[in-house]
C-alpha cells in the first residue's frame, strides 16, 4: 500500500500554502538540496572533469531514464534524459516522419500545448510537410491513409481532457501512421502504459508532477521495435555511436542512445534523481485512484460553494487527467486573489482557473481549504482589486 502521508513529508511545502500548481512546477523534495550539494562538493569540486567517468555523469541520462520508465509503462534501457521538451518533440516527430517516406501529414489537435504545435509547424515548413490541427474530439475521424504522424499531448494542459492512448494509437497504426505522445501532464499524474498501448514515441518534461525542479531535463522514449531505425533530424554529439572518436560523419548509436543530443545537465539530473527517490514504492494504480478521489472532491466542493464558476474539465474522471479547470470572466484576477490568500493554482488564457492535484503531497485538507478560500474570494469580491488585475510576465 502506498503511504501518501510519507510521500507528503518528503517535500518542502511552505507554511500556510495550499499548493495546487504541481502541474506547472512541482515542489522541492527535501533531500534534493543535500543531493545537489553533495554532487557539487564531492564530485564537481574534487573530481573535476574525471567526474564524467568516476561519478558516472556520462551514463546518468540512461540511469535516470530507467527510473522514469517504470512510471510510464516502459522498459529498462528505453528512456533517455536530456535537453528540453521542445527539442525532444522535434526529435520524435522528425524521426517518425523519416520512418514514413511518402507521407507528409502531421495530425494534432487544438488542445495540444502550443509549443508542440510551434515545433511541428516549423518542422513541417522546413521539410515540406503539412500540419493539420483539429478539435480534440475530432482526432479519430481525421486519421486517414495519408497520415504520417499523430502527435498528441495525452492530457490537455487547459481542460485536463485525457485522450485514449491505446485506441488512438491503434487507429493510427491501422492507417499506417506512427504516434508521438507528449506526457508532460501525464508522467507522475496518471497510470501511463506506453508498451501496453503500443505507442511509438513519447516525450515528457520532469519539472511538473515528477518534481525535478525548474528547467529540469526532458525525457524521450522510443518503442524497442523502432529503437535502431529511428533517425531524428537533430543529430548531436552524444547520440553518435563513438562520440569520442570525433568522426566527421554521423553514425547513430544503438537504441535509445541515438536520441541524445548535447552534454547532459549533470546538476539538474542530480536534483531530478533525488526527486525520483520519492517514487520508490509508489503504486501507480493507487496514485491514480488517489488523484480521482481528490479531483472529484474538489469539483463537488466548488460546484456547491461557487455556483458562478463553470467546469471546464471532463466530468467523467476516466476522461480526465489529474487537474481541474473552472471558467470565470475574471479568472486571472480571481487566481491572483487566491494566491494572495495562500492557495496556489494558475491561470490559462482566456478565462480558466487551473488546479493540479499531485497525490504524492496533496490531501483532502488541501481540497477543503482551496474550496473555502475560493468561495470567500468570490463572495467578498476580493479579486476586484487593482493589484490582482496587473499581469505579470508569467501567468
Q: Can you tell me about this structure?
A:
This protein is α/β, with parallel strands linked by helices. It has 2 domains: 4-29 and 283-389, Aspartate Aminotransferase, domain 1 (Alpha-Beta Complex), CATH 3.90.1150; 32-277, Type I PLP-dependent aspartate aminotransferase-like (Major domain) (Aspartate Aminotransferase, domain 2, 3-Layer(aba) Sandwich). It is 36% helix and 14% strand. It has 13 helices and 15 strands. The strands form 4 sheets. Strands 4-10-9-8-7-5-6 form a 7-stranded mixed beta sheet, with helices on both faces. It has a 4-stranded antiparallel beta sheet with strand order 11-12-15-14, covered by helices on one side. Strands 1-3 form a two-stranded antiparallel sheet. Keywords: Hydrolase, Pyridine nucleotide biosynthesis, Pyridoxal phosphate.
Features:
395 residues, Aspartate Aminotransferase, domain 1, seven-stranded mixed sheet
**Low-pLDDT segments:** none
Output the number of helix runs.
13
Question: Structural class of the secondary elements?
Answer: alpha/beta
Tally of extended strands?
Answer: 15
Provide the spatial order of strands within the biggest beta sheet.
Answer: 4-10-9-8-7-5-6
Instruction: Tell me the span between the first and last alpha carbons.
Output: 37 Å
CATH topology of the largest domain: Aspartate Aminotransferase, domain 2
From the spread of the alpha carbons, the general shape counts as globular
How does the major sheet shape up? Answer: 7 strands, mixed
Strand content: 5-15%
GO cellular component, one term: cytoplasm
Binding site for pyridoxal 5'-phosphate: 85-86, 113-116, 153, 182, 185, 207, 237, 263
Organism: Paracoccus chinensis
Cofactor: pyridoxal 5'-phosphate
Amino acid at each position: 500500500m502506498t503511504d501518501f502521508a510519507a510521500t507528503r513529508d518528503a517535500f518542502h511545502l511552505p507554511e500556510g500554502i495550499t499548493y495546487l500548481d504541481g502541474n506547472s512546477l512541482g515542489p522541492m523534495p527535501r533531500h534534493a538540496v543535500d543531493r545537489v550539494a553533495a554532487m557539487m562538493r564531492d564530485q564537481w569540486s574534487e573530481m573535476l572533469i574525471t567526474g564524467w567517468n568516476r561519478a558516472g555523469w556520462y551514463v546518468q541520462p540512461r540511469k535516470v531514464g530507467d527510473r522514469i520508465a517504470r512510471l510510464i509503462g516502459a522498459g529498462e534501457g528505453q528512456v533517455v534524459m536530456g535537453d528540453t521538451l521542445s527539442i525532444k518533440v522535434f526529435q520524435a516527430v522528425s524521426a517518425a516522419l523519416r520512418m514514413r517516406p511518402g507521407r507528409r501529414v502531421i495530425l494534432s489537435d487544438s488542445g495540444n500545448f502550443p509549443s508542440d504545435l510551434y515545433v511541428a509547424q516549423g518542422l513541417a515548413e522546413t521539410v515540406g510537410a503539412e500540419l493539420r490541427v483539429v478539435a480534440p474530439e475530432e482526432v479519430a475521424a481525421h486519421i486517414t491513409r495519408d497520415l504520417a504522424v499523430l502527435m498528441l499531448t495525452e492530457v490537455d494542459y487547459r481542460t485536463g481532457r485525457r485522450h485514449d492512448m491505446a485506441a488512438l494509437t491503434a487507429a493510427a497504426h491501422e492507417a499506417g501512421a506512427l504516434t508521438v505522445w507528449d506526457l508532460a501532464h501525464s508522467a507522475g499524474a496518471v497510470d501511463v502504459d506506453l508498451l501496453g498501448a503500443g505507442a511509438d514515441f513519447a516525450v515528457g518534461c520532469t519539472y511538473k508532477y515528477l518534481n525535478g525542479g525548474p528547467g529540469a531535463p526532458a525525457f524521450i522514449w522510443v518503442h524497442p521495435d523502432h529503437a535502431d531505425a529511428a533517425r531524428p533530424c537533430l543529430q548531436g554529439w552524444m547520440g553518435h555511436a563513438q562520440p569520442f572518436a570525433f568522426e566527421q560523419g554521423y553514425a547513430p548509436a544503438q537504441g535509445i542512445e541515438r536520441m541524445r543530443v548535447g552534454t547532459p545537465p549533470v546538476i539538474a539530473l542530480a536534483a531530478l534523481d533525488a526527486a525520483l527517490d520519492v517514487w520508490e514504492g509508489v503504486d501507480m494504480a493507487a496514485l491514480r485512484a488517489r488523484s480521482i478521489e481528490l479531483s472529484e472532491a474538489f469539483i463537488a466542493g466548488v460546484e456547491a460553494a461557487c455556483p458562478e464558476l463553470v467546469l471546464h474539465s471532463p466530468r467523467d474522471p476516466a476522461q480526465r487527467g489529474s487537474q481541474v479547470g473552472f471558467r470565470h470572466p475574471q479568472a486571472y484576477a480571481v487566481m491572483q486573489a487566491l494566491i494572495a490568500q495562500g492557495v496556489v493554482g494558475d491561470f490559462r488564457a482566456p478565462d480558466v482557473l487551473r488546479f493540479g492535484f499531485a497525490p504524492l503531497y496533496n490531501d483532502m485538507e488541501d481540497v477543503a481549504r482551496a474550496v473555502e478560500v475560493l468561495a470567500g474570494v468570490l463572495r467578498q469580491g476580493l479579486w476586484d482589486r487593482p493589484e490582482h488585475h496587473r499581469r505579470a510576465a508569467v501567468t
